[in-house]
Amino acid sequence: MGKTTIDSKIFACTQSTVLAKDIAKQYGVPLGNILFSRYSDGEFQPSFEESVRGSRVFLIGSTNPSSENLMEMLLMLDAAKRASARHITAVMPYFGWARQDRKDKPRAPIGAKLIAKLLETAGATRIITMDLHADQIQGFFEKPVDHLFASTLFLPYLRSLNIEDLTIASPDMGGSKRAYAYSKYLESDVVICYKQRKKANIISHMELIGEVKGKNVVLVDDMVDTAGTLTHAADLMIERGAKSVRAVCTHPLLSGEAYERVEASKLTELIVTDSIPLQKESKKIKVLSCAQLFAEVMYNVHHNESISGKFVM
């Protein structure tokens, strides 16, 4: 008998179907056929409508809330494992529940660690994700994690704008490392916003560390949820004399009144990826596709080639 080659197959969770189609097209294989059966009470069951025995299976799906998106990924991982797939890679452009990366108060869960264990128990043999909320989440896994950076998309776009008097800003202290990395490549100054919260998504006070007068500012963050922090920071910087403020955020959660806040803010532009599909269009929101980045990394993983060239930061 001759040497057996391992096929690669790509399947999509329902919330990431559009992105998965683009990734499959870039990769050069058709998107696999999967059937979702639903019961009247809301329970659902995915099933592969083609053989995956002995294959490398890529399951593409962001796990942003609601929790159905996570459950869908877990059920698909379990189905692939029970169908005898040889390698099962969870491709999660957005890794949900990542803000719970530590105990920030007594009697609280570490949700990101729990999700990591659930994914591995369900059958994931590898994780590919992008811009985790906290880098240390990679250590929650016992399986290999390929942590990609959206800076590979954002930096060329920012350079193409030829922004003069550029300053990179972080909307909070936690994002200072990311801001400094961007400033290094763009050879710009850095400012930091210091904020205090009353509770989740509600800011009680914000102060600016650094000078923005006469500068064109680019705020850099890993996600935008209610857009309260971003729009507050943008308005504060314009008040302090900034000529313009843009924001670069990898994951557009955009919940609650986020769209309205962005539209009403002093932001010139909000630049995001398609890791999470937009709920509606906005003239202020620019979407850069991450399909080619994921397709190239998946191809290299399947062919046992290096992916280090895909890391900018």
Question: Overview of this structure, please?
Answer:
This protein has 313 residues and is an alpha/beta fold. It has 2 domains: 8-149 and 291-310, Rossmann fold (3-Layer(aba) Sandwich), CATH 3.40.50.2020; 151-288, 3-Layer(aba) Sandwich (Rossmann fold), CATH 3.40.50. It is built from 8 helices and 14 strands. The chain has a 7-stranded mixed β-sheet, with helices on both faces. Helix 1 crosses helix 8 and helix 2 (67-82) runs parallel beside helix 3. The protein is globular. The model has no long low-confidence stretch (mean pLDDT 93).
The strand count comes to 14
CATH topology of the largest domain: Rossmann fold
Distance between the termini: 45 Å
Q: What is the correct CATH architecture of the largest domain?
A: 3-Layer(aba) Sandwich
Biggest beta sheet attributes: 7 strands, mixed
Radius of gyration, whole Å: 20 Å
Average of the residue pLDDT scores: 93
Shape: globular
Number of domains as seen in the coordinates: 2
Number of H/I helices: 8
Helix amount, in percent? 25-40%
In CATH's first tier, which class of the largest domain applies? Alpha Beta
Give the helices and strands, then pairings.
Layout: E1 8-12, H1 17-27, E2 34-38, E3 44-48, E4 56-60, H2 67-82, E5 87-92, H3 111-122, E6 126-130, E7 145-148, H4 151-160, E8 166-170, H5 176-186, E9 189-199, E10 202-209, E11 216-224, H6 228-239, E12 244-252, H7 258-264, E13 269-273, E14 285-288, H8 291-302
Parallel strand pairs: 1-4, 4-5, 5-6, 6-7, 8-9, 8-11, 11-12, 12-13, 13-14
Antiparallel strand pairs: 2-3, 9-10
